[in-house]
Specification:
Its EC number is 3.1.2.-. This is PaaI family thioesterase. GO terms for molecular function: hydrolase activity. This protein has 142 residues and is an alpha+beta fold. The protein has one domain: Roll (Thiol Ester Dehydrase, Chain A), CATH 3.10.129.10. Helix content is 17%, strand content 41%. It contains two helices and six strands. Strands 1-2-4-5-6-3 form a six-stranded antiparallel beta sheet. The protein starts with 17 loop residues before the first helix and ends in a 5-residue tail after the last strand. 30% of the residues are buried.
Length: 142
């Protein structure tokens, strides 16, 4: 059973704005209860010593979790806004891609909690993140 508000297709999703575009994040798979994407590990996402910057991992996690949260709600009635994110960085990566998968831990009426696992191309855990989203009703009078 799908958790999405409507039957979205991968082609419906875009990362061609803001930080996601700058970092090269792209969505790669939309499953019945997860959203997957990847980000290149290059000079753009490195820290000074040549490995993936933790902030870039967090940006990937928040992009995936925030977008997934939006896909579960009626966009004419609700906005999903990040409240808190944490991340544990497990392994360094110097090149290639990192792949993130966002899955819900809790989908409530007013808040969501998402877990985002980020792995390298060999499926080794690089970072695990938890994102809390506020689900805010849009003021219909505005």
């Amino acid at each position: 059973m799908s958790i999405w508000f409507k039957p979205y297709k991968l082609e419906d999703l875009t990362t061609r704005i803001g930080m996601a575009e700058h970092l090269g994040i792209e969505f790669t798979e939309l499953g019945p209860d997860y959203l997957r994407g990847r980000m290149p590990v290059t000079d753009r996402t490195h820290q000074p010593d040549g490995i993936l910057h933790g902030g870039a991992s967090v940006a990937l996690a928040e992009t995936l979790g925030s977008y997934a949260a939006m896909l579960t709600t009626d966009p004419s009635k609700y906005r999903c806004l990040g409240q808190e994110i944490n991340a544990n960085h497990i392994r360094g990566v110097a090149s290639g891609f990192v792949i993130g998968t966002a899955r819900p831990v809790h989908l409530g009426r007013r808040s969501h909690v998402w877990e985002i696992r980020i792995t390298d191309e060999r499926d080794k855990l690089v970072c695990i993140s938890r994102l809390t989203m506020a689900v805010i009703e849009i003021d219909q009078k505005a």
